[in-house]
Design brief:
This protein has 410 residues and is mainly alpha-helical. Helix content is 52%, strand content 6%.
Length: 410
């Protein structure tokens, strides 16, 4: 099989890469080369091709690692490669991007091999000076360390560098100058209820389902009719992917009577189709705007709208919401609600975000049924539990879910 010279490509984020194919095994590998606007990117590309040709077009450690062992791999290159790798795995990279941006601001052109503990502490101090909380500073610093760990696993950086970075201790609570961590509060119904009128039908149902179940946003965004087990009492839902999946844990979300009433109108759609779809939300919004139109809709208007629609590309919607888009919709709904309440002279609703719905459900379940039952429903572990006790059984779930189902029926 012939192997053409790989081309230098760029992704939508403005980073360059190329694909190398091993002549011996036909294995294809993607190699990141840094920002497209960097003049050294093309030099790294030619250097990579030279090593590949010298090795007989065989992918060896020296070929792929060459740019990391030289001073060609900068912190900016590492950040770009790490974020691209996370995106390829389907993860939300927004928060990771914030963390890597701190390192790039002060060390963008620094060789990644020279990024040691003192550099990490300096970057973390810059986070503290910006007013970030202790927990957020620690999380972002650990994200930078994870990026180095990935580079070490790809043999782009030496393992001793990772060992040195892991020796840096996390900031303690009460660190001088660092903002204390703010505990997530539970949302109040008096703040949630007025906002529901400003949400489309799918978003309103998703909000109520989060309120009644205490599930994570990502778990319910992926909900389909086929995923709900309606043979059990209460109904149950096991997400295919969830936060603790990598620990070998099973997540079961119960749908008690209030949750079933919310989700039932959406179950008539195809079994594999997502329940809460952005396209339906936008169609509802368009219908609402059309019904609220003040001027008459003449035939000339319809003809002009048709011509405009033919002249632009059809809008493509995602199949389902994610935690980011849902949170954005909630923020916009709260802003619209407060704008109308301000005009009417009413009290404004307090700001809340989707994660506060989960805390509200946990608080209610703990007050009514105890901490253990609430932990089983929410998917949390109880403090002081052994590793064996953390593995809930179906009998545990059946006992806890039955208690709540009977309690809500009375």
């Amino acid at each position: 099989m012939t192997h053409d010279v790989p081309r230098l490509l760029s992704d939508r984020q403005g980073y360059s890469f190329c694909h190398l194919t091993c002549r011996r095994s036909d294995q294809r590998r993607k190699v990141h080369l840094g920002p497209s606007h960097d003049p050294d990117t093309r030099l790294r590309y030619y250097s990579l091709l030279q090593r590949w040709e010298t090795a007989g077009r065989i992918l060896t450690a020296e070929v792929v690692e060459g740019r990391g062992r030289s001073h060609g791999l900068t912190v900016a290159d590492l950040a770009a490669a790490w974020i691209a790798e996370q995106k390829a795995e389907g993860r939300n990279t927004e928060r990771i991007g914030y963390a890597m941006r701190h390192a790039e601001e002060s060390c963008a052109q620094l060789p990644a091999a020279e990024f040691g503990p003192r550099r990490l502490k300096a970057v973390r101090k810059a986070m503290v000076d910006r007013g970030l909380s202790v927990t957020e500073c620690n999380w972002r610093a650990s994200a930078i360390v994870r990026a180095v760990a990935w580079a070490v696993s790809e043999e782009m950086l030496p393992g001793s560098q990772l060992q040195a970075l892991r020796a840096v201790k996390a900031l303690a609570i009460g660190h001088p100058g660092a903002k204390p961590a703010r505990r997530v509060q539970a949302a109040r119904w008096i703040d949630v209820e007025p906002v529901l009128d400003y949400l489309s039908k799918p978003l309103r149902a998703l909000t109520l389902l989060l309120w009644h179940t205490g599930a994570r946003v990502g778990e319910l965004c992926a909900l389909t009719p086929a995923a709900i087990d309606r043979t059990s009492n209460p109904w149950t839902y096991q997400p295919t992917t969830h936060k603790t999946q990598h620990l070998g844990k099973v997540r079961v979300v119960p749908f008690f009577r209030p949750a079933r009433e919310v989700v039932e109108p959406f179950l008539s759609r195809p079994s594999g189709r997502f329940l809460f779809r952005p396209e339906e939300a936008m169609n509802d919004r368009a219908t609402e705007m059309r019904q609220g139109r003040q001027t008459p809709l003449w035939q000339a208007h319809l003809q002009r709208y048709s011509r405009e629609a033919d002249g632009r590309a059809a809008r493509v919607y995602k199949e389902a919401y994610d935690s980011r888009s849902f949170a954005h919709a909630i923020r916009r709904a709260i802003a619209r609600c407060n704008r109308d309440r301000l005009s009417a002279g009413d009290d404004l609703v307090n700001q809340w975000h989707p994660h506060m719905l989960r805390h509200a459900a946990q608080t209610r379940f703990e007050e009514e049924f105890g901490a253990r039952t609430a932990a089983l429903i929410i998917g949390h572990e109880l403090p002081g539990m052994s590793s064996v006790q953390r593995r809930y059984t179906h009998a545990d779930w059946a006992l806890a879910f039955g208690e709540v189902e009977r309690g809500q029926a009375t």
